Sequence to fold (398 residues):
Amino acid sequence: MAKPNLHYAELKSSYLFYHIEQRTNAYRQAHPGVPLLRLGAGDVTLPLCPAVIEALHKAVDDQAHGATFHGYMPECGAGFLKDAICSYYAGRGIPLLTDEVFITTGAADDLGSILDLFSQDNTALIIEPAYPAYVDTNVMAGHKLIHFPSSRADGFTPLPDDGIEADLIYICSPNNPTGAVYDRAGLQAWVDYANRKGAVIIFDAAYESFIGEEGVPHSIFELEGSRSCAIEICSLSKTAGFTGTRCGYTIVPKDLERSGMNLHSMWVRSRTTKTNGVSYIVQRGAEAVFSPAGQQQIRENIAVYKRNAAVLMRALDACGIWYCGGKNAPYLWMKCPGGMGSWDCFDLLLNQAQIVGTPGEGFGSCGEGYFRLSSFGAAQEVEEAADRIKKLFGSQGA
Fold:
C-alpha cells in the first residue's frame, strides 16, 4: 500500500485567503449588487508594461519560423535572461556568476521546491507574522518549526537570538505582510548569526523594487558573508506585474556548502531532473523587464502603487491609527482600532465600509490585533477606501 506524506495532516484546515473569500462571498450573497473595495490579496492591477508586451509579441513571432523557433529551453534558464539579471545586480555592486542564477516560474514555486536541498532533520525559524507558505511548506517537509515573533516594539524587524538553534531562517524584506524593511545592520546581524550557526537564510526579495530609502539593502548579497549562508528568491510578479505571466529567479551561490555537499550543485541537479525550464516566450518578456525602457516603465507602475500606499497612510494618520509599512512596500500593517481582534476588524470593514482586507491573525499568532491593507488596487478605489476608513474610524488612535 502506498504511504502518504502524513505531515499534510498537520496543516491547518483552511488557507487564509480561502477563508477570506468564503466570508466575502457570504456578504455578496446577502448584499447582491453592492460593490466591494479590495485591499486584501496582493495581486497587481496594472497591465504588463509596453516593453514586455513588445518582447512577448516578438517571441511569439519567433516561434512561427523555423530559423528562430525554440523548443525546450535550458532547465536552469536561458543565458540571455540570466545575463540580464546579473547586469541588474552588478548595478548595485553585487557580482554574480551567470550560472548562480536560476530562472523559475515564480517565487512561490521555489519557496517550496528549495526544501528538496535540506534533510527532514532540520529546524526552520520563521519570523512571524509571515507569508503562510513558509510555514506550510516546512510542515509538508516534516521540519521542526520555530515561530519567531516580531512586534510593534521591534518594528516587526527582530534581531537574532543566539540562544536559539535554527538550521533554516526565513527573512522577507520588505516584508509580507507587515511592510517592514530591515536596515543594513539588522540584516548583517542575521547573516552573522547564520554563519555562526551553520544555518542557511532563505531570503525572499519579492518586494525589493518597492524600496525607496537610500542605504536599505535590496538583496541579501549586499551583506558581508552572505554568499556562504544565503539563498535569494525573487519574483517579477510585483516588480513587473507577472502574477499571471509567471517568472522569477533564485540565486544559489557556488560558495554555499553544508556537510561537504555543495548546495549549488545540488540545485542544478534538482532543476535538471525535475523541471523542463520556463518557456522561451516568457523568458523574452522577462528579459525586457531589465532593459532601460522596461526599468523606466516598471518604476512608473510601482510609483502608482506607492502613491496608493501614501493615500492609505494619510488616512490612517488622520485616524491616529498606528501602522508600519507603506513607505518601502505595497502593504500597510495597521493596529486594529479599539483593541479589536483581526477577524472582528475584517468583519467591521466588510460590513460597514465594504472594504476587503487581510486579518493579521492569518499570518501567525503574533499578527492577532493587526490588519493588512494592500496598495495594489486601482487609484480611484484606493482613494474611496481611504475616505471610508476615515469615516469609519474617525480619530480612534491605536
